[in-house]
Specification:
It contains 7 helices and 6 strands, in the order αββββββαααααα.
Length: 237
């Protein structure tokens, strides 16, 4: 009887082991597919928060829409996509402003300065300053800029250098794309240096009263970009 009991115990162990192996082979028993997503957040402002505005993020795998908060902040998530970059566009009373983000978890402000940066990257990568968001996110050259911190930093630096003749002794923060931005609102005058520089740029005519980069400033930035071409193969400037 003891031998029979032992055999039953062995059978139970084998059955348990077989069930465990089956669960592992099936991915732990769950048939739910993994969802890849990209979430980007930031603040939209022109010296004053862009509140209640339609904002869109376009990535390779799709797009997402939302509305900016009273303080200009936003957070957008695109489902079923794995890689950046993504282009963010906010509609304003004066037109539209764009920004660009590397990928999931990125912080990307949307301001006249980021609009200049997107135009700059468009020219230096051969996509074109006014190219569609889809053209940007599907460009290998744009991906080279956004995935190489050294190249992106150089592009930001060239944008600042290109507008230097228009701004005199003003200092534009090198992190205007990703740095914390607190903008004035309709009910609060509290803001930080990132927003204060936008006000100062308006006074110098770099930003128009409509909240967009002035045409001569855009021309200077894109002319500079044409001298610092980036390709997917070299990443050079």
């Amino acid at each position: 009887m003891k031998a029979l009991s032992g055999q039953k115990h062995i059978v139970k162990l084998l059955a348990t082991a077989g069930l465990a192996a089956t669960l592992v082979a099936c991915g732990g028993g769950s048939d739910t597919p993994t969802t890849n997503k990209i979430t980007v957040s930031g603040t939209a402002a022109t010296g004053l928060a862009i509140s209640g505005a339609t904002i869109t993020m376009t990535c390779k795998g799709g797009s997402a829409n939302g509305t900016t908060g009273p303080d200009g902040t936003y957070s957008l998530t695109v489902q079923n996509t794995q890689a950046g970059p993504c282009v963010i566009t906010v509609l304003t009373t004066g037109g539209s402003l764009r920004s660009i983000a590397q990928g999931d978890g990125a912080h990307a402000n949307v301001t006249p300065l980021t609009e200049l940066l997107v135009s700059y990257i468009g020219v230096q990568t051969g996509v074109g300053a006014g190219a569609s968001a889809s053209a940007f996110v599907n460009s290998p050259n744009v991906a080279t800029v956004m995935t190489n911190p050294t190249v992106l930093s150089a592009s930001v630096g060239q944008v600042i250098a290109s507008i230097k003749p228009f701004i005199g002794d003003l200092i534009v923060p090198a992190d205007f794309l990703t740095g914390p931005l607190q903008a004035k609102t309709a009910t609060s005058s509290a803001n930080n240096a990132q927003d204060q520089i936008l006000d100062a740029l308006k006074l110098r005519g770099v930003i128009t009263t409509a909240g967009t980069p002035a045409a001569n400033v855009v021309a200077a930035a894109t002319a500079n970009a044409a001298q610092h071409v980036v390709t997917g193969g070299t990443g050079g400037q």
